[in-house]
Design a protein that fits this description.
Oligomer: single chain
Radius of gyration: 17 Å
CATH superfamily of the largest domain: Winged helix-like DNA-binding domain superfamily/Winged helix DNA-binding domain
């Protein structure tokens, strides 16, 4: 299963191997879709995020090409299609545990529950695991 990271520079990993995402625009596209994971984003939203103020006639085609390149980068084996075309746009579908930010949120929730239950050692372990996911400022390589 491909895992994605945004708690630091944007990354995609297949097991221990980092997946090449391409240039700056591809990384920005992936970051945008990860922030909106499991929700549909319109082509117009994508265009405005990647090419602000340039909603010209060729922009939808540029977006389509960028999505196609990203799709090939993150689904190299063709085993599943997580980046889907939906009515009027795209959706990056992620399972539990695929995005570090969601794992972080779950670990913090578990830590707070353990603390409320009077289990400080268990709470500390969950919170340590959550903090260990951070590799720098979130989305560090995306302006």
């Amino acid at each position: 299963m491909v895992r994605f990271a945004i708690l630091g520079p944007v990354e995609a990993r297949d097991g221990e191997q980092e997946m090449p995402l391409g240039g700056r625009r591809q990384v920005a596209l992936l970051a945008f879709l990860l922030v909106h994971a499991n929700r549909a984003v319109s082509t117009d939203q994508l265009i405005e995020a990647l090419w602000p103020g340039q909603n010209a006639a060729g922009a939808p085609k540029r977006a389509q090409v960028a999505v196609g390149r990203l799709r090939r980068a993150i689904d190299r084996r063709g085993e599943h299609e997580s980046l889907r075309t939906v009515s009027g746009g795209y959706s990056l579908q992620l399972a539990a545990g695929q995005l570090d930010a969601k794992v972080f949120e779950a670990l913090v929730r578990d830590g707070l529950r353990a603390l409320d239950a009077g289990e400080p050692a268990n709470a500390a372990e969950h919170l340590r695991q959550a903090l260990a996911l951070w590799r720098g400022p979130a989305l560090a390589d995306v302006a």
